[in-house]
Design goal:
The structure holds two protein chains of two kinds. Chain A contains 15 helices and four strands. By secondary structure, chain A is mostly helical. Classes of the chains: A mainly alpha, B alpha/beta. Chains A and B meet through helix 8, helix 9, helix 10 and helix 11 of A and helix 3, helix 5, helix 6 and helix 7 of B. The structure holds adenosine-5'-diphosphate (ADP) and magnesium ion.
């Protein structure tokens, strides 16, 4: 199949998807669970892909994603609350210190930039650490950020431990799909560029990558900052979707959820992360909801079903995956028009299959 | 200025109590193939690691094409021990990371092959082009560097062709037979366009036929790529046939040096290789 044909088919598929969403929005009531799943799925797909850029493509085991999402969400909220709403929101802080409001799109981009700046500063000391220590340090950072944002002294900026709310948000599912889609496309383009090749070299073998003239510190920092930039954007989208936010939402459990999505999808597969993020949201928001509520059938109270049980089931799923399905859904493969085409026509991807083994 | 491409001066490398390299001095001249031999654990790989910036030496300096590229001296008590009355003279530290050394024109291979496992032969070679990029993060991500990208790929293909690896271009690097993996690692080093090539046991694990082919290959790339080669090797046939000069290391110390004939008949070398302790 020609590259051009492939591109045309891909574009057509995307257009079809958006058209379907457009029609759904006009036929199904907007309160439907379907839209919750679609919006949240798109947001989680973006943050999962951003985490995959680090963990799957650069080999940096970082657990700071929730922290950068928090930074993005707060940046968005703080910058977009309309001026006349500020006295309401910042009740305890005399209307807060910021007395302007930006356009949502501008605020989303700035949310990414601020998260990126945080990442740059944190990355300077932290990125020298090796795998496990890096994970611990980034996790610690996320916890610190969460505490700092609730700090009373920062109240005029962050509203302390109170909700940020009344900021504008787009309601259409199309917006979330397009925003997340554009961001994911950018990450894919980065991975397919010469920088992406450098990341993968670092992932495969740091020592060899360095011997090939790749500046480790520089490239790890780029991956970390870019990943955090997009985590910040997904945080802004999450803020928008939830219509109110609070620092205490962004617990480490959130990072684990994202990690779970990445692992299920396949570490090193972008399409895997996207697919598994929707699966995850469908499961957690829809199918497994009943696990958390008590259920009484004919006077008999079904055991175990109570608030928090869903988490137990999830933990078991994680263990099963880690023990038996380490490759995830996709491994490191990607889902593409070309692949499907080749599968259907039975053509092999490799032109030469001849291998001389030893 | 002398013709030497590489000069190692008073290099000592200590890991805790282990002195892996002990006051090593050596020179490699332009166009030469020089071998570094010695029993296992003699400190040969450590010497390579110091030259390529993997770690700064405890003491000493390395020169490349007449320019000092690595230098370090100990602080505190050990300083006097190493530098004596020259203590005050040396306070310069040059500790470049390995990627900087590569950019200067020194490439290396590893004792345990270190290919990029998840990538094809072509991609393994292509990585080397990254350090010569003129695009930045934005132009590369937005794929605005089409010409550069095309040139990178052409360059990688050109090298694959010269080194007769184009038939395995799209194979995964780790699916190649062992001998070819070694050759690919050398090809990858060549892709950085070095003037000095360091080979760490290139014939390790090869059968006699593969070793013969490798011998020819090393001679050929020296000429074709105008290289200077400094090589660690155990296969004596290969070493004796190809080397202009040989250095022999034992317990971190240089115990012999010279042409293959000289080294071969040196009793210290013979006893070091037979494991006989010298009674000094
Ligand atoms: N990074 C390191 N940390 C501690 N000891 C090391 C390190 N690298 C090498 N050594 C020690 O230095 C000595 C020389 O090792 P090496 O240079 O690998 O020997 P060779 O390559 O000649 O076989 C050995 O005793 C080894 O254990
Ligand atoms: Mg060695």
């Amino acid at each position: 199949m020609k590259k051009q044909t492939e591109a045309i088919i891909s574009v057509a598929l995307i257009a079809a998807l958006l058209a379907v969403l457009f029609i759904l929005e006009r036929t199904i009531p907007s309160t439907s669970m379907l839209f919750t799943v679609l919006k949240k799925g798109a947001i989680y797909a973006l943050v999962a892909v951003s985490m995959n850029l680090l963990n799957g493509f650069t080999g940096l085991f970082s657990l700071g994603q929730a922290g950068f999402m928090l930074v993005g969400a707060y940046t968005y909220g703080v910058l977009t609350i309309p001026v006349d709403q500020r006295p309401n929101v910042y009740m305890y802080y005399d209307g807060g210190m910021i007395q302007f409001a930006l356009h949502p799109i501008a605020a989303i981009i700035i949310a990414g930039i601020i998260a990126g700046i945080f990442a740059y500063l944190i990355g300077l000391p932290v990125l020298r650490l090796k795998s496990d220590y890096l994970a611990i340090a980034t996790l610690g950072f996320a916890e610190i950020i969460r505490a700092v944002f609730q700090w009373d002294k920062l109240g005029p900026l962050t509203n302390g431990s109170n909700l940020l709310r009344n900021y504008p948000s787009y309601k259409s599912v199309l917006f979330y799909f397009i925003a997340a889609g554009v961001c994911i496309a950018l990450i894919v383009m980065l991975i397919n560029s010469t920088y992406g090749r450098a990341f993968k070299a670092i992932r495969d073998d740091e020592v060899a990558a360095e011997a090939m003239g790749i500046n480790l510190a520089h490239h790890k920092r780029i991956a970390f900052v870019v990943s955090s930039f997009f985590a910040g954007i997904s945080g802004a989208l999450l803020a928008m979707y939830q219509t109110s936010i609070q620092a205490s939402m962004f617990k480490s459990a959130m990072t684990y959820e994202i990690l779970l999505i990445v692992v299920i999808g396949g570490i090193g597969s972008i399409t895997g992360s996207c697919i598994s993020s929707f699966l995850f949201i469908i499961l957690s928001e829809w199918l497994l909801r009943f696990l958390d509520s008590e259920l009484v059938i004919g006077g008999f109270k079904v055991p175990l079903l109570r608030s928090g049980f869903r988490k137990v089931v999830f933990s078991i799923i994680i263990m099963i995956i880690v023990l038996f399905f380490r490759q995830g859904i996709m491994g490191t493969k990607e889902f593409s028009v070309r692949r499907i085409f080749n599968r259907i026509t039975g053509r092999s991807r490799k032109s030469s299959e001849g291998r001389n083994g030893r | 200025m002398s013709e030497n491409v590489l000069k190692v001066e008073h290099v000592t490398m200590q890991f805790g109590g282990v002195v892996a390299v002990d006051n090593l001095n050596l020179e490699v001249n332009k166009g030469e193939i020089v071998s570094l031999i010695g029993p296992n654990g003699a400190g040969k790989t450590t010497a390579f690691n110091v030259i390529t910036g993997v770690y700064p030496p405890t003491n000493g300096a390395v020169y490349f094409q007449g320019r000092k590229i690595v230098e370090n001296h100990p602080q505190g008590k050990m300083r006097r021990q190493y530098l004596g009355e020259n203590e005050g003279k040396y306070d310069h530290v040059i500790a470049p990371t390995p990627d900087r050394i590569t950019k200067l024109g020194i490439a290396r291979t590893f004792q345990n092959i270190r290919l990029f496992k998840s990538q094809t032969v072509f991609e393994n070679i292509l990585i080397a082009e990254h350090m010569r990029r003129t695009s930045n993060l934005f132009t590369a991500t937005l794929h605005l560097n089409g010409t550069e990208e095309r040139n990178m790929r052409e360059e990688a293909d050109r090298l694959l062709h010269i080194l007769e690896l184009d038939d395995v271009r799209n194979e995964m690097a780790t699916s190649l037979p062992y001998g070819k993996q070694r050759r690919l690692e050398i090809a990858r080093a060549l892709a950085t366009k070095p003037s000095l090539l360091l080979l760490d046991e290139p014939a390790a694990g090869m059968n006699p036929q593969e070793t013969d082919e490798l011998t020819a290959f090393i001679g050929r790339i020296r000429d074709d790529f105008h290289l200077t080669i400094f090589m660690i090797e155990h296969h004596m046939d290969l070493v004796m046939e190809i080397s202009d000069r040989i250095y022999v290391l034992d317990f971190g110390k240089l115990i012999s040096q010279g042409t293959p004939d000289v080294v071969q008949s040196d009793p210290r070398v013979i006893s070091a290789y037979l494991g006989v302790q010298e009674d000094e």
